[in-house]
Amino acid sequence: MRGLRILLIVVVILGVLFVIADRVAVHFAEGEAADKLKTTESLAETPDVDIKGFPFLTQLAGGSLDDVEVGIGEYDAATGKAGRTIRVEDLKAHMKGVEFSGDYSSATAATATGTGTVSYAELLKTAKSEPTQVAPGASARVTGLSDGGNGKIKVAVELSAPALGIKQTVSVLSSVSVVDGRVEVHADSLPSLAGAVIAEDRIRTITDFQQAIDQLPGGIKLDKVQAAPKGVEISVKGSDVRLAG
């Protein structure tokens, strides 16, 4: 019996040591992966990397991780216009089937899904905030974006026709969607300017606009968008997503 007790104690101690070693190893790996991702994506801050699953060491030995989550506080995505970016906040990516090279210099996820938020202030930079002529003697510009409720964006449009003594701001409820890989804001109905006749296609050059969100980490792509209280929530997805190397 004494021998059995000693054996059980040894097994328990070894088990505890394995768990400790496993957690130390995964913590080290997360730090290394975060540093590598920061360098690869030229991030201002070190991202959060969370390697899921237990034990980690057996996954490491197999050369593949089941589940990895990456969190980036702020990411400046490309807009397709030289020198201009759009900031995505709280970008989180969920990677599945992450395989890495023998020297750990590169890692690729079989699939990835994620979410992030583009504030209304950021999206407003895309809209025409300078007065634009929409009819003889009449101009319009977008002055603000906000949550319109029920998945809509409220677009504040300032309409002006000095000769008619008109200057007013109207609100337009707009739908937001992904069209050809871009965020598209499209007015459900158009504002009217008392006394001024404005063709629909002219006023839509102000109320409707698109914004590209490109070159996201690892090559993930824009999938869906949804208006929310603090901004436009985006969903992204991808396959063969390169995390490093």
UniProtKB/TrEMBL annotation:
InterPro entries: DUF2993. It holds the Pfam family LmeA. This is DUF2993 domain-containing protein. It comes from Streptomyces nogalater.
